[in-house]
Amino acid sequence: MNWKTFYALLSRDGHVARRNLMPMLLQNLLQPLLLTFVFGRVMTSSGMMHAEYKSLLLPGVMAISMVLAGVQGVAMPLITEFQFTREIEDRLLAPIEIGWLAVEKIAAGMMQALVAGLVVIPAAWLTMGSGVHLTLQPVLFVIVLLLVALFASAGGLALGCSVGQTQIGLMFSLVLAPMMMFGCAYYPWSFLKAFPVLQYAVLINPLVYASEGLRGTLTNTDHINTYIVIGALTAINILLLVVGLKKFHQKAVS
Amino acid sequence: MGIGIRIENLRKVYDTPPPSAARGGGFSFTAQRSAGPKEKKKKFEVVALDGISLEMRAGEVFGLLGPNGAGKSTTIGVLTTRTRPTGGRAFIGEYDVWQQQVKAKRLIGVVPQRPNLDFALTAREVLLFHGAYFGQSKHERERRSDELLAQFQLTDRADHMVRNFSGGMMQRISIARAMMHDPEVLFLDEPSAGLDPQTRLMLWEIVRSYNKLGKTIVLTTHYMDEADSLCGRLAIIDHGRIICQGTPAELKASIPGGYLLRLRFNHVPESLAAELKNLPGVTDVKVQAQGAVDVYADRGGPLIGPIVNAAQALNAELNDVHIAEPSLETLFLHQTGRSLRD
């Protein structure tokens, strides 16, 4: 392992992320914030929804924002860099095992996901006004937050190495949209009780655990047991890492 | 001290279509395995390298010459760790390229066939980050990038994004990047494809002066003049095999007669080849399709008269003549029966 090279790869991604900061923030944050405003502010102040909905919504929006950061920060760049231009080649030729380049991508993606997730708290607070009740469980929250960041980033790696440039549109409509809608981001998992089949079917969706985990550690609202969430996220992360690293190797060498 | 390269019985069979010519793109379609009667689906299999053995000596400029799809880029791909060999071994210096990738990567600089620059960066940043990947200190990489930008006449565009560069400028910054960490071996895959003549001459000068520092240079090309003027030794590859190798002079001397007269008749009577072979100075006659005949001889123009007479005696009419002086092009034709650009 060559730390100098690893650090240089990381600083390259940091440099590019800083250069693209504004568009990236807009891409990651605008949609969740608009949702927060409409559902958390407009709907609640009109009386159509309970004021408690604000606290339910915040962790879900955080989870979505982190997943989007993983897609924007890891999957999308990988899709373009592995395409025709082979932009990634100069880094594949850097004096380091190519598996470490994938690890570096995951580390950079995790940092972006963490920033994207944590920025949501004050931003959503501002758009929703008062009425968000946070009851933080610091240790569990940090563990869940890190697991969600790893999920966003490793998922981005697996997605980025499996999807071709022509399939980006499909990726959004077939993978990301259903994942967000059935990810328990806008409602807690227990609300699906009326749809028993669906309630158990959505359990294959990792975003369910991300939303429920953040909901459980950040607020006092209805949620799946946090230890189950931690176990499920750990298992999902291991699976995504194995798949992602394997796909990365396949893409990197002909 | 320079670094040599050894390739032993290298094979590469693609079972999926190779991604692009940017790396490992060269492959031949000839050796495709025919599907057996029991196989339901025809398996994609393309033999790109069919047991290549080569030695490139430390400090020489070695050229790989061949038509598109001959296996040049795949050879470069394997030597630069970007392509996994199916069989055989390749060494950069003492390091097995596949087993000791990181050590091998430290020794090499690569200019790909198509520029694969990091489009998220400016020209200067491309060089600075490349230096950082190779562990250069901040001071060292700033000094070296300034030098290279000046050498490649890119100083005034140094802080522009490379994605807006023209093809020639991208190629120049690619070469500068490959030289950034001062590698012992420089690989250039079709370096002058798409360059204007002036930039091409500049590139040749840069290659020569880098070679003077004792560095080994491996380049692929299908320009004969480039191979002829740059390379100390050459190997001609076709269909994944080495057809011949040696210095340009040795290779040219091996062409029978040296001159090649490509003739075209309205028809080729049976006895014409024998008649032509009997003409003074003719060493070999090859009858090709559609009235074309290749004549190898130790002279060019003076043979036209006798050829016309011989043809007329057999009622054949000579329609076209092309005389090629001894060159690598003629050598390639002689060895493969095909022109380099076919």
Describe it for me?
The complex is a heterodimer of chains A (about 250) and B (about 350). With about 250 residues, chain A is mostly helical. Chain A has one domain (about 5-250). Helix content of chain A is about 75%, strand content about 0%. Chain A has helices at about 5-20, 20-45, 55-80, 90, 100-130, 140-160, 170-180, 195-200, 205-220, 225-250. In chain A, helix 3 packs across helix 9 (about 205-220). Chain A is globular. The model of chain A has no long low-confidence stretch (mean pLDDT about 90). Chain B is of the alpha/beta class. Chain B folds into two domains: about 5-115 and about 165-250, 3-Layer(aba) Sandwich (Rossmann fold), CATH 3.40.50.300; about 255-325, Alpha-Beta Plaits, CATH 3.30.70. Chain B has eleven helices and 14 strands. In chain B, the strands form three sheets. Chain B has a six-stranded mixed beta sheet, sandwiched between helices. The longest helix of chain B is centred in the middle third of the chain and has 16 residues, at about 195-210. The model of chain B is unreliable at about 20-35 (pLDDT under 50). The interface of A and B includes residues 2, 12 and 85 of A.
Outline of chain A, from the CA principal axes? globular
Q: What does the largest sheet of chain A look like?
A: none
Radius of gyration of chain A: 18 Å
User: What is the structural class of chain B?
Assistant: alpha/beta
User: How is the largest sheet of chain B built, in terms of strand order?
Assistant: 6-7-8-3-9-10
The count of domains of chain A is 1
CATH architectural category of the largest domain in chain B = 3-Layer(aba) Sandwich
Q: What helical percentage do the residues of chain B reach?
A: 25-40%
Could you give a short account of the major beta sheet of chain B? 6 strands, mixed
Give helix and strand order of chain A, one letter per element, not per position. Answer: HHHHHHHHHH
Ends distance of chain B = 40 Å
Helix content of chain A: over 70%
